Amino acid sequence: MPHRTSRSVPDHGDWAVPYQPADVIDLDPTAGSHGGIPKPPLVDAVYRVVEAEGPIHREVLLRHLGELLYALRPVRMKSSVNAAADRLRDEGRINETGDFLDIPNRPCTYARWPLPGLTRRPVEHVAPVERQRALLGLVEDRPRGLGAEQAVAAAISLFGWSGGNSAARAKLMADLYRLRDTGAITGWPDKLEPVG
Fold first, then answer.
1. According to CATH, what is the number of the domain 120-194?
2. Which one of 46, 130, 166, 187 is most buried, counting C-beta atoms within 10 A?
3. How far is it, in rounded angstroms, from Cα 16 to Cα 11?
4. Within its chain, how far is the Cα of 131 from the centroid?
C-alpha cells in the first residue's frame, strides 16, 4: 500500500501508520454518471482513492467521495460511485474481496490508526488482512510478551475502538485464530510470537 509513513504510532514499528485519506479534492462535484455509465473523472477518482486507501470498504469509499459529490442526490451518488468501482473491477484495475476494494496482488503491509478528527472505521470497515497485519505487528513488537487476549486488546486500542466493543473483540480473535491456524504465529495462547 503506498501510504505515507510520516510517523508510526508510539511503541509500534513501521507497520502502524496513520490513515491518510486520498487527495481527490479536484473532483468536480457534478461528476457522476450519464445514462448509468460513470464519467471518466469519477472513475479516476475511485481508482485514486482505492490506490491510496486500499483495502477500503465500499461504504468508506462512498463516504469519502460523497463529501465531494455534494451536488448529486445521495442515491445517484451511490449508484455512480458503485458503477465506477464495478467498472474498474471488471477491467481488472482493482480487486474486490467481500466488500473491500484494493489494487490487485498488493500485500497488506500496514495497519492504519485513525487521525484525530477523522471518522474512525468500525471493525466491519477494516479489512481482515489489515486487522491481521495489526495483530501480527503487535506480536512482532513484543514476541512472547503478549497473550491472545492482550493482543486483541492492543489492536482494539490501535484502531481507536472502545474496550467493550464485543464485535471488534470477536473479529480480532477470529483473525488471531486464522494467524495461528495458517502458521504465522506460535505460542498459543499465552506467549505469542511470529514465525520467521
1. 1.10.10
2. 46
3. 10
4. 8
